[in-house]
Amino acid sequence: MADEQQGAGGNGSDDNGQPQVSILAQYVKDLSVENPSAPQVYSWQVQPQLDVQFNLNVEGAQEGVHEVTLKFDISARSENGVHFVVDLSYAGLFALRNIPQEALPPFLMIEAPRLLFPFARQVISDAVSSTGFPPLMLDPIDFASAYMAQLEATQQQQDAAGGNGGNEQAPTEA
């Protein structure tokens, strides 16, 4: 009881200030699956061109809890028409405590989506399979490279705008 009373006071004294991450929930936020050319598509003898686009969104859900959403737009098309279209928003709620402010963006933009991706990939595979096509197993995504590319693009935009915005980041080039 005494430990509980001391820990209830705030700032997570039960955890000795150690960083803590919890996945509170994972869920399909939105799923759309289309097979617009059925039944003719099953007689087409052409290999469709696959287009896979993904986006990542991070929002604060409440204090210390962030929603990370992976958004996939996938289509298979050929000269005959559309074979299938899958749009998926797969999200997770992450509770974070004692994480330094500078470590939040890398965690939320790299590690959180890396944890969610296998589950989103399974939803996509099942959705494509449900349209009568072979399951689609997406290749892994290098979220670290995507994050670094986003940082570089943001830095270039800031440099082009001529402002440093008071950022306290160390220069990336000498």
Alpha-carbon distance between the two ends: 56 Å
Q: What string, H for helix and E for strand, traces the elements in order?
A: HEEEEHH
CATH architecture: Roll
Overall geometry comes to: globular
Strand order of the main beta sheet, please? 1-4-3-2
Number of helices: 3
Counting DSSP E segments of at least 2 residues, the number of strands comes to 4
Q: Which band does the percent of strand residues land in?
A: 25-35%
Overview of the molecule:
By secondary structure, the chain is α+β, with helices and mostly antiparallel strands. The chain has a single domain (19-160), classed as SecB-like (Bacterial Protein-export protein SecB, Roll), CATH 3.10.420. It has 3 helices and 4 strands, in the order H-E-E-E-E-H-H. It has helices at residues 2-7, 104-130, 143-161, and strands at residues 20-34, 49-62, 65-78, 81-97. A 4-stranded antiparallel sheet has the order 1-4-3-2, with helices on one face. Helix 2 packs across helix 3. The chain is globular and about 60 Å long.
